[in-house]
Amino acid sequence: MDAYRTPDEQFDRLPGYDFEPHYLEQAGLRMHYLDEGSGLPVLLLHGEPTWSYLYRKIIPELTPSARAIAPDYFGFGRSDKPLLIEDYSYDFHTASIVRLVEHLDLRDATVVVQDWGGPIGLRLAVEHPDRISRLVIMNTGIGGGRPPSDEWLRFRDWLARLGTEIIPGRLVQISAVQPMSDEVEASYSAPWPVPESKAGILAFPGLVPISPDHPDTPAHLAVREQLAHWEKPALVLFSDSDPIFSLRAAERIAAHIPGALEPETVKGAGHFLQEDQGEEIGRRIARFVAA
Asked: What is the DSSP secondary structure assignment for residue 108, as one 8-state letter?
């Protein structure tokens, strides 16, 4: 498939993002990922419309005792970006992350998920339990067949109106609870300098299974069913100021997963809680993995 490759200079001198890039070729496309530290692997999966930059505050808290791996999905970050919305699917994203995990031969791993990282990472976990030992679930949903919230529907419609005029960093900035500099906002937008690079961003809302007849609803419900039998440790960590995924959603997820601890709240954070309270979240994840 035809794809856009963001020029390397777009990623020069981004604040807080002084990490060495790594790449994996998959069927003619180049996937980017970060790989920092050593120890038990922690796979950090981002959501929409962010990329591995979202984890820049968390990675330094993990690397003294763990190995932090943060990929960019195809269509995001430093990874190649197929040009057509129809190039993207739930299966496409999940399979690409599975190939990365197999390439790195990750075992006894912790999967950290947020937003779209949830459907992708939790599917990885339940379909490859021999490789995944722990879950950290942040501000996401499980299952399918209905919208996550009314606020999400408003976001979907807003994104449809904007189309390729979407500025990803602006969305992160207006969702943030803590102050965010113009330089950080620009860094979130750095991977998408031209309109044709944004198909992956525009594709994700259509992949959310908001009705029973959505083609991906059965796959999402299968993940939910398998999570009902997940007895390995799971940390459910939600922010206190997310209009899309509430603390009640955290309670429902924790009640659904047998291995889940009591859900924890991250204060002073919105939907992109890694941006608002990354250092605190990193410390909590590090303690969870060590325990």
From this structure: S
> Is 153 exposed, middle or buried, given 0-12, 13-18 or 19+ CB atoms closer than 10 A?
middle
The answer to whether 116 and 204 are in contact (CB under 8 A) is: yes
Pull the structure tokens for residue 81.
């970006």
Identify residue 264 by its one-letter amino acid code.
E
Q: Which residues are catalytic?
A: 115, 242, 271
- Residue 32 in tokens: 């980017």
Q: Where are the beta strands (DSSP E) in 104-157?
A: 109-114, 132-138
Residue 32: which H helix or E strand, with range?
Answer: strand 29-37
Q: Which two tokens stand for residue 13?
A: 């001198």
pLDDT in tens, 159-217: 999 999 999 999 999 999 999 999 999 999 999 999 999 999 999 999 999 999 999 99
DSSP reduced 3-state for 145: coil
Per-residue CA distances from 100 to 22, 23, 77, 95, 125 (Å): 11, 10, 16, 9, 14
- How far apart are alpha carbons 106 and 162 in whole angstroms? 39
- CB of 241 within 8 A of CB of 177? yes
Q: Chain-centre distance of CA 10, in angstroms?
A: 21
Neighbours of 211 (CB within 10 A): 11
Q: What is the pLDDT of residues 11-63, one digit of tens each?
A: 999 999 999 999 999 999 999 999 999 999 999 999 999 999 999 999 999 99
Q: Encoding tokens for residue 188?
A: 């979130």
- CA 233, distance to chain mean position in Å, is 20
Neighbour tally for 2: CB within 10 Å: 10
Structure tokens at 156: 């979907």
DSSP E strands, 91-131: 109-114
Pairing of strands 132-138, 29-37: unpaired
